[in-house]
Amino acid sequence: MAETILSLSGIEKHYGNIPAAVDVTLDVRVGELLVLLGPSGCGKSTLLRLISGLETPDQGTISSNGRVLSDASTLVPPEERKISLVFQDNALFPHMTVCDNVAFGLPKHKAGARTRRVGEVLDMVRLADVAGRYPHELSGGQQQRVALARALAPQPALVLLDEPFSDLDRTLRIALRDEVREVLKANGTSAILVTHDQEEALAVGDRVAVQNAGRIEQIGAPEDLFKTPASRFVAEFVGETDFITGEVTPTGIRTEIGTLDQTDGMPVGTAVDIAIRADDVAITPDPNGPGTVVSRTFTGMQNVYRVRLASGAIVRSLQPHTLVLTEGTHVQVRAAPGHHLAWFPAGAYGN
Amino acid sequence: MELSSSLSTVRARRATAARRLLWSTLPVMVAAMVVVPMVLLVARLLHPTGEVWAQLWGTILPEMIRNTLLLMLGVAVITLALGSGLAWLVTAYRFPGSRIFDWALILPLAVPTYVMGFVYMATFDFAGPVQTTLRAWFGADIALPNIRSGGGAILVMGLTLYPYVYFLARAAFREQSSSTFDAARAMGYTRLQTFFRLVLPLARPSLVAGVTLALLEAMTDFATVRFFNFRTMSEGIVHVWQGMMNRDAAIELSALFLFFALTIVIVERLLRGRARYYQPGRRTRQITRVTLVGWRKWAATATCTAIFGAAFLLPAARLVSWTVGDLSNVATANVLKTVYLGYVVRTFALAATAAVIAVLIALILAQGTRMNTGRFGRAATRLATMGYALPGAVIAAGVLITVAIIDRTVMSASESLFGINPGLLLTGSIVGLLYAYVVRFMAVAYNSVESSMVKVTPNMEEAARTLGATPGRVMWRVHLPLIKVGMAAGAALVFVDVMKELPATILLAPFGMETLSMWTYMLAAESLWESAALPSLTIVIVGLIPVMLLMRVGRMATPGGNQ
What we know:
heterodimer; A: alpha+beta; Rossmann fold; CATH 2.40.50.140; 2 domains; six-stranded mixed β-sheet; five-stranded antiparallel β-sheet; B: mainly alpha; MetI-like fold; two-stranded parallel ribbon; 2 strands; 78% helix
């Protein structure tokens, strides 16, 4: 197991009746990019503020490199934590040039060393040529890269990024997130990135922690989250999942779109809800088929169909762009996952 | 010490808690500074001096109340008519000079009512040049209505105070979109009908706000109405305080006046309703300007010229000619020069001190309200800035009794502890006067500082903290550079307001601390118009600074407004 740079244990934070952090325990490994994923209001930004020292936890311990930052008797102020923060709105100082913004975190450096360090980090984010400009003279993407450079300049133990790409348009967002990942990796900097965008989380995270109503529901590699979601919430939030009902039979789990080749040791007759995604569902046009095409979303290389089953349940099906079916077309629907599917006790919403 | 031996981290936690407590207490303390004098004032009403009231009621009180109400009514009607009418003229029509009048019509704001008052007195009185000339032309029978009357006072105040309504109405008309206007026109309304049915009602919150500002100014004035022999409550308080030397009666009168002022503010809130002054963010097309032709265009130009001439050109020209005349006379010039310099230095020092104190307290208030955004903090801020609605004489009375209580407390404490009687430390000192200025003009300083503070987002503060900056360094490197313009603007506004202030100054200024405004008033009260011109001119010229600031703000709010 790799060395940890930050560890939280039993962190609690409540605002009145609203839980922002419930028994949060997690470690960040040296050099790792951990993504904190969750819907808005789940407490993920609060967690960053607790780690950076801008908020005080009700309970629990935060420590970094073996040094306690916050517990019942200790509270290290934010300026002494060596943890820097990048905001969604970049929070650059509008009265300082790019260069001065980046140098802000280096007051104790000698002039020469400071200039050198500012040059280094600006090179890293490929902005050396705009060092003399003011923030309002830069594009949104450039501003966010300056914010990252400013956060990296004091060589912090950890960088926290709070939805850093949300204010940008889609193309820029994708380009910038790859670049940020590269910079962090090249620098060997450990980081926590907060996002509500599951695609972004899966794309950039070494590991992803899914948070819901203050609680961390699952931490794992992106693939693990996708393949074996620990809760119905994780299944729904990661990877656009539909649910269909099934019943365990001696040969597998029987559903209205075919029997799955898995029983997972459950007694015959158990009712379950199965998490199934668009790439697990096959459809073929058939005038007598039980499914009806509800809608088609053309995404370029593929068509995603929403199909209503005889029971009224709706599943999505991923099809090549060459298969074009109009709404109302009757289809045969078959579950064809080719791998194990996650399931949850029928009807029990939540875990 | 115990602290130094404990962990630094424990200290940090305590420091955070202490800082939070400090910032939540400071706005409340500032609010208390404003509220306590007013509460003490009202408390006086609970134990009224029977004979004083009987005497006041039997003599001047009914007249004072009637005149004050008449003044309010007259000023409201004139400022509303002039302000909204002129604003509509320059917003909706194009005529010769319309672009110049657009900003020039704000200039009368730089002329204090009492300066305007004595200029009009000198010009239109029986012995003045206008009546003298008329008599020379048409014989001795010709007579104008007596300027020395309530009507004269109302006219003068209307002419100097209409820019409040004009400025806000102009901004409100400009941000109304042309589509609602055009929709009404398409439904068959004429431009004039649309103005009364649609444009005016939409601008109501701004109009009400403008009239309220004008009324508060008219209410605080005592000098103009005194020139015109029109006794209002403000004049009455100064009269009872200084003329009759009856401070207790003046204080009780002030308490009554306080309710008067508060009524106006409450009525304003009710009339404004839930609407706001501005609806920012909507950058819609403005109402299309129509080019006037024929007699209409000259009528428009003539109207604007007449108002601008009466409200600004006439007083400015008379002040300049008097000053030049007085300075070219060797005998008076030398006296004037030496005395004048003393007044300027004193006034500027006083105004600068008050401005710095007001801005520093405003800074504390703004930062405090930012850090605790609760209902309590907002209420504290509102109370702390309510001084703008209180007449100067009322504030002076409140400050006087507050300072007296502090003095008595210090005196008895000092005597029982040290056996020394230090005498009255604050009463009659410069402290009381500065206190009154800060209370009266806190809103001016606060609004400037607060609006510039918006530029510092909470995220910026936090980003700075996580980059290793202590709260002090954040204040120094991030806050101050961003808000210094707002602080300077606030200080300039307070400076000018203090320089123009008269009632509180005349009641509280210690002997030897007379200001330019007092000097102007005293000379004018003796009908020494020529001598009063130089200090008046100084006040008007410095007073142009905030008017310029206003015009810049007005222009920024309406890009392309001067097409």
